[in-house]
Every structure is written in C-alpha cells, then in structure tokens.
C-alpha cells in the first residue's frame, strides 16, 4: 500500500505516531513528532500520516530561514482519529503544499505561523469518504508574510463536513487569500466558515476570500459563510460567497453530446473544483492535484 502512495524521491511515513518508513534529504530531520527543515537547496518531499485507530497525533514542523519546500501531504486518518499539526515558517521561507485527504470520519487541526516575508501556498483536495472536520488557521506574524489557500471539497451520500479557514494578520503589509470551492451531492452536508482578520495597526495589509458551493440534489445542506474582522482603515479586504444549484442546461448539453448523466455530473464537478490547482506553482504538485481531482465522482 505504501509504495502505491509514494510518488517522491524523498518521503516520511508516520504511522500511529511512529516513523514507519523514511528517506529524507540532507538537512531534513524527524524525531519524536518534530520535523525540521534546514535545507540550503529546494526540496521536494512527501509526508504521509496514517492513523489506523481512534487516536490523536501531534506534530510540529519547523522551516528555517530561506528554506524552499514543495510538499505532498497525504492523510489516512481512521474514524475518530485526530491530527494536530503546527507549522512554523521562519523569515523568507517558502512552502508550497498539496494536501490530499483520504481519511474516514476524522478531524484535523492545523496552525501555520509565518514570519517576515515567509510565503505559504496551500492547496487542499478534501475528497475523502465519511464525515470530516478541518480547522486550518494561518497567522501572519511577520511583515510581508503571504498566505494563499485554496480548497476543493466534496460531500456526498450522508457525509457531514465542516471546514474553518482563518487567516489572521498580526503585522502590517501582509497578504492573505482563500478560495474555497465545494460540491455537495445526494444527502451530503457541507459548511465552510472563512474568516479574515486584520488586527489594529496592520496597515497596508490585504485580506480576500471566496467561498462557493454547488449543490446537486434537493436533500443537500450547504452553507458558505464569510467573516471579515477589520480593525484598521488603511487596508484592502473583500469577500464573496455563494451557494447554488448545478446548471441543468449545462447538464442537458453534455448529455446531448453523448455523455451519460453520471459522466456529465463528473465532468461538471471536476470543472468546478479544478481552479484550486492554480494556487500551486510547482508542476509536480499540479500533476498530483490533477490526478486527485480526476477521481471525483468516478
């Protein structure tokens, strides 16, 4: 199973809290829940989290100054499992992540702290089976810190999914943007809370967010809730939110071209979620994202 998951030369597989398998590059180390990046040259790496029973695992990830990392993150969390992750990006660190969620009914809590001129670009493929709750928080603690987050979420059958995405500006001249796209089918439920916060004195900062959900069936429950907490005047802030039905004319058009209803719905879902790929600059990560989305509705 592990060999089927891995797609990078360098990797770390953590199973039930222990290092199960690893091949780490120079200046990257892992021990007892602490992953350190001290690399001089850019690194591509895959991190796999496996919790195959109801348990909680805590991990801290520290990225030192000027490190550049392209990361694939794969989550396999059993029903009732919880992943707690804290990430610390030092000055001028660059982190690009594609996160694929293959979990059951589980929870994930993530805090990312960015220092001066640190950049974090995060793309999520939240296409797992079962209920799931994700709390993804980003703290811009240094001048010039930049966080961009995009999520592709699918809720189907009777799945109940909830996501809270927070970007908090604690220093001036910081930038935060989130774009969350969801699709709900059958009797699924999806709630997205997007929170942008610019604290007092953080002039020259910008906070933008978009939350959109498309519903396929009348039994779906969906909510896209944007929140902006702005405590300074010299800033830019915007939000957009929408929940709407699938375009029946679009579906009819695709079926009139020879596609079955299932194939047409798959194509519409894929096209709706695909913009998430744009946040990932690295070609290897884009290919992984493309592969994950190709399975939507299959």
Q: Can you give a write-up of this model?
A:
The protein has one domain (2-292). A hairpin with a 2-residue loop joins β1 and β2. It starts with a helix and ends in a 5-residue tail after the last helix. It is mainly beta and 298 residues long. The model has no long low-confidence stretch (mean pLDDT 91). The chain is globular and about 55 Å long. The strands form two sheets. The chain has a ten-stranded mixed β-sheet, with helices on one face. The chain has helices at 2-5, 248-256, 261-273, 283-293; strands at residues 11-15, 18-23, 28-31, 34-37, 43-51, 56-63, 68-77, 82-89, 94-101, 106-114, 119-126, 132-140, 146-155, 160-169, 175-184, 189-198, 206-215, 221-230, 236-245.
The percent of residues in helical segments reads: 10-25%
Coarse shape = globular
Q: What's the number of domains?
A: 1
Oligomeric state: single chain
Helix-strand layout with pairing:
Layout: H1 2-5, E1 11-15, E2 18-23, E3 28-31, E4 34-37, E5 43-51, E6 56-63, E7 68-77, E8 82-89, E9 94-101, E10 106-114, E11 119-126, E12 132-140, E13 146-155, E14 160-169, E15 175-184, E16 189-198, E17 206-215, E18 221-230, E19 236-245, H2 248-256, H3 261-273, H4 283-293
Parallel strand pairs: 1-5, 4-6, 5-7, 6-8, 7-9, 8-10, 9-11, 10-12, 11-13, 12-14, 13-15, 14-16, 15-17, 16-18, 17-19
Antiparallel strand pairs: 1-2, 3-4
Helix pairs in contact: 2-3
